[in-house]
Amino acid sequence: MNLDALRDHVFQPIIVNYTDKDTMLYALSLGAGSDPMDERELPFVFEKNLKSLPSIAAVLAHPGLWLADKKFEINLVKLLHGEQRCTFHKPLPASGELRGEYRVDAVMDKGADKGALMYFAKDLYDNASGELLCSVLSTYFLRGDGGCGSFGEVPEAMAKVPETPADFSEEIVIDKRAALFYRLNGDRNPIHADPELAKKAGFPAPILQGLCAYGICGLSVVRQALDYDPSKMGSLNLRFSSPVFPGETLKVEAWKVDGGIAFQAFVKEREKLAISDGFVAVH
């Protein structure tokens, strides 16, 4: 990894227009509206009284695979998405024009044999008013780039969930086509669609996008703890612990804690922790 190139890179802002179709497609790709008669969920997938799910911030104004620029000298084969955090300053409208601004906040070198953590920030603004709507922070684990040095200030570690029995629990059967639907939001990485490529990467089948699991967990918390009101969600943070496959059952467990909701998620069939250290601040 070329630390100087990463630290000094200046990102150009991206202006995007999104429509109600994008908002509905995003919600559908997470499994919203699976019961078309559920009137509580209909506002996420029907233009009448349409509401955007806050986690759509993860895909709006996405800067693309900028890490592939050769000047950064990053080993992309060993890159993993480790954590995702988003703070929602204002509810995202169901359609509009946004401006995305980007920066690399920090790199934490864990050692030559241990890789490095890179913290990439995206701020989304209403392009007309200039108002900041949400702040997104993605943590990437660069397994092949340790020993290259550090810079910047890393965020506080995420809090662990309580060890008491969960206050809420929901089992979500992930559609076998979920990764294919989610690709239409902009993530065209073929590892989520091409069985042969997935096997070359060491997986028995295409894996679910981490940000799709992120959105599914956010939707589950909206259902279980926020009375289907996404405007109550002040943040959505979590750690990706292991891959999830389309067709599996994700069991989301949640707790009422000071300031919000803590949560985690297991793959039921494999009894495998997939999402850990989850937290939603509640307005």
Question: What would you note in describing this structure?
Answer:
- The structure is a single chain.
- The chain is 16% helix and 34% strand.
- The radius of gyration is 18 Å and the shape is globular.
- Strands 1, 2, 3, 4, 5, 6, 7, 8, 9, 10 and 11 form an 11-stranded antiparallel β-sheet that branches.
- The protein has helices at 3-8, 20-29, 178-183, 195-200, 210-225, and strands at residues 14-18, 79-88, 96-111, 115-126, 132-142, 151-152, 168-173, 235-240, 249-257, 260-267, 272-281.
- The longest helix is centred in the last third of the chain and has 16 residues, at 210-225.
- The mean pLDDT is 96.
- It is of the alpha+beta class and 283 residues long.
Could you write a compact summary of the structure shown?
With 283 residues, the protein is an alpha+beta fold. The protein has five helices and eleven strands.
Question: What does the secondary structure layout of this molecule look like, with pairings?
Answer:
Elements: H1 3-8, E1 14-18, H2 20-29, E2 79-88, E3 96-111, E4 115-126, E5 132-142, E6 151-152, E7 168-173, H3 178-183, H4 195-200, H5 210-225, E8 235-240, E9 249-257, E10 260-267, E11 272-281
Antiparallel strand pairs: 1-3, 2-5, 2-8, 3-4, 3-6, 4-5, 7-9, 8-11, 9-10, 10-11
